[in-house]
Specification:
single chain; 252 residues; mainly alpha; 11 helices
């Protein structure tokens, strides 16, 4: 029982010096920050998956106002909702002021909508990627922080052994176990952060790809009056399942 307590975490913490305790506290903070980002972004990802059908409902609406309302009800403040709202606002601005001899009116309507879409995608990209730098930093530095604790622990152990003059197993096991615990702790912090970073990066890449496709359709709708139909939609054009969104020329 005494030997078990001598190798327990509480005993190792009591035997550790200020450097080891500081490294352990830093790893705890890194772990808390990592898991907070993992849980918060994971929840956001689950909520985003519920908005998969919102874009198709947007195109199924009979009018632009109804489409924006459907998108807002279904997707809330999702990137696709903000994208459609900014594109509609840019189109309305061009419709009202496109013929005026002003600095804003001199800009081509299609170019103005393109810039609005790009700005919305850039803002959505910044939101999706927020926190990923912290995860990447934790995943890459936590093993080295733990390794520093291990090196310092071994140095502290060897110094203690040399001063005591005893090199038996019971004298070496405690300090060396304390040092190796720091390495394990560093890996425990780093591995979830790296896996989460890779998973979120892939999910963001897929989400941004879908958002870019939606932006392309919105640009085509507001500049030409119709959405670009894919091959599947063209093949089933002879039996439509819904009334399409009204042309943009009718919106103005």
């Amino acid at each position: 029982m005494d030997a078990h307590n001598a190798l327990g975490l509480s005993e190792l913490w009591a035997q550790a010096d200020f450097i080891i305790q500081s490294v352990a506290a830093l790893l705890v903070l890194m772990s808390v920050a990592s898991w907070y980002l993992i849980l918060s972004k994971g929840l956001s990802l689950l909520l985003a998956r519920r908005h998969v059908g919102a874009v198709e409902q947007f195109w199924n609406a009979p009018s632009l106002d109804d489409a924006l309302q459907r998108l807002a009800r279904r997707a809330g403040d999702a990137p696709c909702t903000r994208l459609a709202q900014q594109a509609a606002a840019a189109h309305a601005h061009c419709t009202r002021h496109g013929g005026q001899p002003t600095l804003g009116g001199a800009l081509d309507g299609g170019e103005f909508i393109t810039r609005s879409l790009r700005r919305s995608i850039a803002q959505s990209t910044a939101r999706l990627e927020s926190g990923l730098t912290v995860l990447a930093s934790i995943g890459s530095t936590a093993p080295f922080v733990g390794l520093f604790g291990t090196v310092w622990g071994i140095y502290h152990a060897l110094t203690t052994i040399s001063l005591s003059g005893a090199a038996s197993i019971d004298k070496v096991a405690g300090p060396v176990g304390e040092a190796l615990t720091m390495t394990a702790f560093g890996l425990f912090v780093a591995i979830p952060a790296v896996l989460a970073y890779n998973g979120f990066t892939r999910s963001n890449r897929v989400a941004l790809s879908e958002l870019d496709g939606f932006a392309h359709d919105l640009h085509a709708y507001f500049t030409t009056g119709a959405r670009i139909e894919d091959d599947t939609a063209t093949a089933h054009a002879d039996r439509p399942a819904h009334r399409p969104l009204a042309p943009a020329s009718e919106v103005a």
